[in-house]
Structures are given as C-alpha cells and as structure tokens.
Amino acid sequence: MRGLEGPVTAAVLAGAVLGGGYGALKTPQYAATSYVIVVPAEKSDPAAALGFAQAYGRVATDIAVTGDAQVWAGVTADTLRRNVQAATSPDAPMISITAKAEKPAKAVSMADGVARALVLNSTHVAGSTGVKVVQFSRATKPVAPVSPSAPLSALVGGCAGGLLGGLALLVRPKRAAARGEARHSRQAAATSGATSAAVPAPAAAAHQPEAV
Fold first, then answer.
1. Looking at the predicted structure, is the pLDDT value of residue 1 above 50?
2. pLDDT of residue 43
3. What gap in Å lies between CA 31 and CA 109, rounded to an integer?
4. CA proximity to 83, closest of 160, 29, 39, 12
5. What distance lies between CA 172 and its chain's CA centroid?
6. 142, 153, 161, 195: which could join 30 in a potential S-S bond, CB 3.0 to 4.6 Å?
7. Eight-state DSSP code of residue 20
8. CB atoms inside a 10 Å sphere around CB 85
9. Share of residues in the chain with pLDDT > 70 (%)
C-alpha cells in the first residue's frame, strides 16, 4: 500500500497547487440582485400576473439589450447577456435579476439597469398585457465576492487531484494484469508448439497381406 500512496499524494498536491493558483490569479466576481414584481392593472385577472412574470423572466436580458439598460448600466449588450440572469418563482409573480461583475458598484448598476428596463417596457405594453412591472427592491452593494477564494480553490483542486490519482491507480493494475495474461498465453502457446514439434508422429502401420 505504501507504493500506492506516493502517486495519490503527488496528485493531491498538484491539484491543490493548480487550484490555489487559479483562485489567486482569477479576478474576484461580485453579485448583486434586484427584484421586480408583476402586478395586474385595473379590471385585469390577478392570475395573469403570474404567467406574465414567467414570460418576463425568460426575456429579461433581451428586453434589457433592446432597451436602455446598456446606457444605465454602462456596459455592452454582450456583457449583459453573459453576466445577468433572471429567475422567477412558481408561487409569486416576482422576478429576481442577478448581475455579476468585477466591481460591486458595477454589479449593482447592471442589476438595477435591467430591472429598470423591464419596468419601462411593461409600461409601454400595459394596455395590451393588462399587467405592469414595478420595482420591488433595488440591488444592494455586495461586500464579499461570490467567486471561490484561493484556499477553497486549493481544497477543491486537491480533492479532484486525489480522485484522479485514485482512479489512475485502479485502472493501472487491470492493464498490467491484462498484459501479463496475454504474455502468459503467448508463452504457453509457444511452449505447446515446441513440444508438438519435438514428439514425432506415429508411423503408419505397414500393410500385411492376408493369409490364404
């Protein structure tokens, strides 16, 4: 077992070093979340608000890109698509808009910018939809990054390295055993062939004439 501990230990150390280096070099990411709620207009079916909340949640980033969210957030359309996510609730007509950025203030402006775009868009089409989106809670400035720290990355990397090292050790003996069995089979076949060649075949019996 001692011979097996060395490769696994080396794999754990290598994974920890790589994971820790990644966590130390990667730029921290901050997340901010803004909340909006869909409310029915006068004389509208209250149940329709939940359905429209699901629809607005699916197209939140598209509305933000086509609207003025880029201007309010100060980022490009591609940045909004890649770093903003909207989530809805099956029980309430509420939409959470979460934005990630390298700076806390930028994450806040992106989340609030998309929320503002949804509010403005819903106002324009309220006559046909019978609902409108209103601001429920503005995003607050995050105080800690959501990306993993260097120690956590090192821990995850070490666990992954140990797992890969263990799997490699499990696969290697099977391959060695398979090669040994194949070598033994070839040697046995060669020995059997040599023995067969050394033993002469029995001579054919001479034909004896029948007595009259």
1. no
2. 74
3. 11
4. 29
5. 28
6. 142
7. H
8. 17
9. 57
Give the dihedral sign, CA 68/71/73/75.
positive
Across the beta sheet with 94-101, what order do the strands follow?
84-88, 94-101, 30-40, 131-137
User: Beta strands of 91-164 (E only): which ranges?
Assistant: 94-101, 131-137
Give the phi and the psi of residue 96 in degrees, each rounded to 5: -100, 135
Measured distance CA(67)–CA(61) in Å, rounded:
10
* pLDDT value of residue 182: 57
| pLDDT tens profile 106-163 | 999 999 999 999 999 999 888 888 999 999 999 999 988 876 645 555 555 556 655 6
Count CB neighbours of 201 within 10 A. 6
Say how far apart CA 102 and CA 147 lie, in whole Å. Answer: 10
Going by the DSSP 8-state scheme, the letter that residue 97 receives in this structure is E
> Can you tell me which residue has the tokens 């992954």?
160
Q: How far apart are CA 107 and CA 154, in angstroms?
A: 26
Other CB atoms within 10 A of residue 64 CB: 28
Contact criterion met (CB below 8 Å) for 114 and 65 = no
Task: Show the tokens assigned to 193.
Answer: 């062939």
CB 118 within 8 A of CB 65: no
Query: Which among 53, 55, 77, 45 has a CA at the least distance from the CA of 64?
Result: 77
169 with 161: CB under 8 angstroms? Answer: no
